[in-house]
Amino acid sequence: MSGTGKCLCGDIKLEFNSDPNFHLLCHCKDCQQATGSPVASIIGLPESDFNIKGDLGNYKCETNVTRFFCKKCGSQIYSKAEGAPGLVLVKTGVLDEQPSIDPTMVCWIDSKPNWLKIEHPEVKFEKNPG
To answer: How far apart are CA 64 and CA 54, in angstroms?
Structure first.
């Protein structure tokens, strides 16, 4: 699978040429606050196959995750976790086409709002995988 994407204003453009390592749903409080949504849809890609152009800002969370976003429109683009070197965690909302693979896992399941009715993958983690 190859893919392209962009931020809301179009200043940030990304591309990759490999299949995602995984597709996950995350309900952690950091993702909720960063995205303004109760769930983040994320694909994991090898950093060596991820190309991005544009003026990115970043914010390092207390959880040792650095989030990268467009400085102009604020769109969340991807994250890097210190515990997952060589991997970028791309928000699927910025992709021009959604991933062809369904989510295979969900994390921070206990942080999901009770009112959110969503079908989750079989693999569930109370916190981060691993």
So the answer is: 23
Give the number of domains in the chain.
1
Nearby residues of 62 by Cβ (< 8 Å), 6 or more positions away:
none
Indicate whether this model's pTM tops 0.90. no
Residue type, 66: T
Give the CATH number of the domain where residue 73 resides: 3.90.1590.10
49 inside domain: yes
> Which amino acid appears at position 73 of this protein?
C
Owning domain of residue 115: 3-124
Model pLDDT for residues 13-70, shown as the tens digit of each residue: 999 999 999 999 999 899 899 999 999 999 999 999 999 999 999 999 888 999 999 9
